[in-house]
């Protein structure tokens, strides 16, 4: 990083201006819809650099990272860092399956390797969740596995371990299989992934019947996967002021999915957080505040995971608290956090594994979040509380191309950015009432497999993300 001398002078000057301790009303008053919208419109411009999205590793995402980093550097108030890591990028590819020349509607599963295989089909006993379900007959052939009980990825790796050259997963319900992913990139402790496709609906029931009756049928699988290693950056900015042994971390993710520019998801949280970080330098803080702008959240919380794994035990123990802001300006916004003074009805939701808060919870760090709803459907009761439309999603453009500036609920953006500013100011002043991070839990002891967020929902109101089971 090149630091030019004017910035150094500016930083000394701005630190000496920061005389008063930050407080919530002042920081909240500094938040304006105009500035939030300005940032957000920039994100849409950035998305035009890369086919209308800001997926990690793309030009649109890189421009987002540069915008944040430059703005924070200009304040002189933070030690900023680009934290570089790599991850396998995967996008929707092509998968097809035919048996005896008849094509079947197939679903592409993320993380499936490319390949072309033709071999006899062999039914796997039970649901293929245990090694015992895969007889010797599977070796060299295509394993035919019923959906249910365990993740697709587990079944495919077990089939690979048994020597199958390919696999199909057939449905137990009409319609597409949910999830659409093998869940994690690889499962070296179970077995290798092999070309696989999931079959749509129950169209294959006749085929399954014939196989069960002992007929020999040759199937063909064709998979074209889109997968490559990409480098990307988290932006981490820590106040130079404040107690560096008690760090309040506030985070949001900067990447979008491939489908669209990601303005509510999560331009709303990341630009709200940026604006708070740009206003905070007017004051002084008691505890250090670290603003974390995560990359590759949409691929399974990769950036926050990398950050926490990279902290030494000592550095991790200094993180007093984590605050997460992912989707805070949904068009039909729900209020899933508690506002004591504002007279609004709120409904608290439990944490799932749908955003970066999970990384910090797994590390035993006290965690809070603001969330205005994603793809979930507003109930009749909620529509009454929040003057919304029952039966319509909180964000009908969730993970879609239409998640642009028009999808941003400006009132919600201001309300929830002020709420975030309140939390940042409060904990920057004092951590009274916050339990010390648990020392009982070894870091990440509760780790559960993270999912590719391209295919599953973020945690919605009372819904866990869908797993491909
Ligand atoms: C984005 O930044 C990463 C990390 O610096 C770099 O490897 C990659 O090539 C950049 N992508 C584009 C499209 O410029
Ligand atoms: C964190 O990453 C930096 C840069 O790659 C490396 O120098 C450092 O050793 C890492 N620390 C830990 C604890 O992994
Ligand atoms: Zn998402
Ligand atoms: Zn998100």
From TrEMBL:
Residues spanning the membrane: none
GO biological process, one term: proteolysis
Keyword terms: Hydrolase, Metal-binding, Protease, Signal, Zinc
Keyword Zinc set for record: yes
Coiled coil: none
A GO MF term: metal ion binding
Listed PANTHER family: METALLOPEPTIDASE M28 FAMILY MEMBER, PEPTIDASE M28 DOMAIN-CONTAINING PROTEIN
Name of this chain's protein: Peptide hydrolase
Organism: Agrocybe chaxingu
Lineage: Eukaryota, Fungi, Dikarya, Basidiomycota, Agaricomycotina
